Amino acid sequence: MGELYALDFDGVICDSCGESSLSALKAAKVRWPVLFDGVDSTIEDWIVDQMHTVRPVVETGYENLLLVRLLLETRTPSIRKSSVGKIPIPHFLSLITMQPRLEGLAVEGILESWSTLKPIIMEEWGENREALIDLFGKVRDEWLEQDFAAWIGANRIYPGVSDALKFASSKVFIVTTKQSRFADALLRELAGVTIPSERIYGLGTGPKVEILKQLQKRPEHQGLTLHFVEDRLATLKNVIKEPELDKWNLYLGNWGYNTAQEKEEAAAIPRIRVLQLSDFSKKLK
Length: 285
Known about the structure:
alpha/beta; Rossmann fold; six-stranded parallel sheet; 8 strands; 49% helix; 11% strand
């Protein structure tokens, strides 16, 4: 008998919001250079700051690029080139044609309606998911190669997690939508931990529910108590929908990228335990 932990990375092990926001800003300038003509550091700083607020909606890294552009158009409505009227959109998106005094309302709208908004703006802007993923990865790679210390420094491992990983008696797997090479670099450099590559399931390895199914089916994992720690409530709800995954103990990390409303909702779901950071570190040890 023993314990197996499947851990999300961003928002559970690593606070990467600073790095992902700056990388997204760099990538957005490459993807939409005309929109950033005349955009000064004050506006850029505001965008990065607001990215911390809207970060809970992000499932996969490329979405950060979309958020950067949307926030830019919220802050500077005059740059918006396309016609909103061609596509039915949630009411709050019309805020980006109004005055900056409504910025807060637009950010609130993003938090409430991102799943509806994302495909709409992808279509309106003529964007391709795979192309944005490739661009985001390329920009990160370039930053990592050109200034490794600055790239690493824009991330932080949550307090206590490094030691918990180093001394974990449980079998630990990383299950993330982050590209594996970035998760590996951060584990090595910030946490001082080396996790074998076959235990890191990153972007492109399949949906998390399918990875959990694979892990529980392995002969060497039979009899282990299964734990999945995630900071996205939507992901945990997807697990609950799969009867095959009933054996997994589910945890919402309340230190990660989720809202007060999501924490409250999770607390009302019997299958999910809302976990404190200190309790998480103790459980891993």
